[in-house]
Amino acid sequence: MVIQSGIQAPSSLRVRILVVEDEPNTRELVCLHLGHEGYTCDAVQDGKEALRCTQQERYDLIVVDVMLPKLDGLSLCRAVRNGTLNTDVPILILTALAEESDKVVGLEAGADDYLTKPFSVREFVARARALLRRPRQIPVAVPSPPPLRTVALSRTGELAKAEPVRILGFEIDPARRSVLLDHRAVEPSDLEFRLLYLLAKHAGIVFSRETLLSEVWRDDTFVTVRSVDTLIRRLRGRIEPDPKRPRFLLTVWGVGYKFSDA
Fold this sequence. Notes:
Blueprint lengths: L2 E3 L10 E5 L3 H13 L3 E5 L2 H10 L4 E4 L8 H9 L9 E5 L4 H9 L4 E4 L4 H13 L12 H4 L6 H5 L4 E3 L2 E4 L4 E4 L2 E3 L3 H12 L5 E2 H9 L7 H15 L9 E4 L3 E4 L3
Parallel strand pairs: 2-3, 2-4, 4-5, 5-6
Antiparallel strand pairs: 1-3, 7-8, 8-9, 9-10, 11-13, 12-13
């Protein structure tokens, strides 16, 4: 259910803000102070309802929590950026997750600003004003390394035409969908194969969780960066002699993962 609040203005002048927060007191507080600024708020409490709103209405700002029911805030950010109606909307993440790595992941997911709870209402309003002053434009995507674009992981036919990879005892053949490690057959799932091929193809290059998410899952907006961690753990269980001390799939703390090049 969408709750509207705020001082009403002519529709041609009205600033509309979508507030996505499952904690009622925080949601009411945010909408109250945005309403005092003359803005109209649509307030929702779960990610799926928010996604539906962004597909039907154009907004001037989205304020979103990360930990949401049904669809988390990071997945919502990615879905909005990949949509059509609100792809250029400013997004302010408002969350209790305060670690630097959480902020990096939030910004990589498409957010423009990040404010941690508990927060100053004056600072929140100031940040909202600043985002609303920004000119609306289509975000320019950060270009990926040219070789990465040729992998085409989401299209089975194109992946089948990709070159085999031989590294550190691995023989990974996309055409046969086969993996050998020291001449021993490994049988990964489809997602595990895509992840392994991508990392091994670019051994030594560090990939953020966001990049892995977009390259391996690509069009599935209902997964989160934690899905990458889960897939890495499963793949390590198949290929690492000691998954707790990985030799091939290495973690780069605060950044992401890479395949060993040594």
